[in-house]
Write a structure and sequence with these properties.
The protein is of the alpha+beta class. The chain contains twelve helices and twelve strands. This is DUF559 domain-containing protein.
Length: about 325
């Protein structure tokens, strides 16, 4: 686990040397009751890194609680959906948290049993171990959030196969949410390209469209002496590219926006000449609409099946 306190330059003001720094540096912002960060640095962080900094700040100052759930996942470097600033906490061996009215702002205690064997302590932070973290995300946040986290773990640590996940997450006595955990493991893959891609795949699986026979992730195509990968390939001909807005910010990936768009257009033409249909979707296309119907991604896929004929494979005779 990364040393998050050092990474973000967190200042623990309850410590004497940090208190002196705090007294002499009013350009800091408190991100928990007793931890501060340089205001300029914090303002420049993307939302998901702000959530990670918050989780680290709370984790450094709680006396007995353990950082858990999606907050623990962030500290492990696991991708999760959203960037909620609320930090999830648990107590050890069934100890109960204080009354909700006494919780510090921006924390949420989970009432459940957590054994000492399920805890890891690194760089002054107590967090749930990987297995318990994944289990709790699925249990408390549902299949979609659980799938995003498990996909991320399987890509980051290939040894977490489906078999290993079942051994670590579902062994022993049944617990609330175990059926959800099993579903997450069954749908997980080792090569998801991003949290948004995992979310899109989840939505397609849940939609159970009768036309969908197969969904492949990160499919490789040869191109100009090299190759590129598409996010999702349905039935061998319908391609879904899931783009986060950060892709077009002009600096994160070291390319200007117009260069990114130009490269995308070149690859799309190549794929279309191969008989593929390409749909590009973003974060908003994966959100449920106000009317409660299917999200735009699903509507686009249905429309593609209605308006495009699948390529016909012809067999060669001798």
């Amino acid at each position: 686990m990364k040393n998050w306190g050092k990474h973000f330059g967190l200042v623990e003001i309850r410590k004497r040397n940090s208190q002196e720094a705090w007294d002499n540096a009013r350009d800091h912002t408190l991100i928990s009751g007793e931890v501060a960060i340089r205001t300029e640095q914090f303002s420049a962080l993307p939302p998901w890194e702000k959530a990670t900094a918050r989780a680290a700040a709370v984790g450094l100052t709680v006396d007995t609680a353990v950082v858990a759930g999606k907050s623990a996942a962030r500290l492990w470097g696991i991708e999760v959906l959203g960037w909620d600033q609320v930090v999830e906490l648990m107590h050890i061996d069934g100890k109960q948290a204080q009354a909700r009215s006494s919780w510090q702002p921006g924390v949420h205690y989970r009432y459940c049993h957590l054994s000492r064997a399920e805890i890891r302590e690194e760089h002054g932070l107590r967090v749930t171990d990987l297995a318990r973290t994944l289990r709790d995300i699925a249990r408390y946040h549902g299949v979609m959030d659980g799938l995003v986290a498990v996909d991320s773990v399987r890509k980051k640590w290939p040894e977490w196969t489906k078999h290993a996940l079942h051994e670590e997450l579902t062994r022993g006595r049944p617990y609330p949410g175990i059926r959800t955990v099993r579903q997450v493991i069954e749908w997980s893959i080792p090569n998801s390209g991003s949290a948004l891609e995992s979310r899109a795949r989840f939505l397609l699986l849940v939609a159970q469209l009768p036309q969908v026979e197969s969904i492949q992730a990160q499919v490789r195509f040869s191109y100009e002496g090299g190759y590129f990968e598409v996010d999702l390939l349905i039935n061998g001909w319908l391609i879904i590219e899931v783009d986060g807005e950060i892709k077009y910010d002009g600096h994160t990936f070291g390319k200007k926006t117009d260069e990114v768009v130009r490269d995308e257009r070149g690859r799309e033409k190549y794929l279309q000449n191969l008989g593929k249909v390409v749909l590009r979707v973003g974060h908003r296309d994966l959100l449920p609409p106000p009317d409660g119907g299917p999200c735009r991604l699903i509507r686009l896929v249905v429309n593609a099946f209605e308006n495009y004929a699948a390529p016909v494979r012809t067999s060669r005779s001798a």
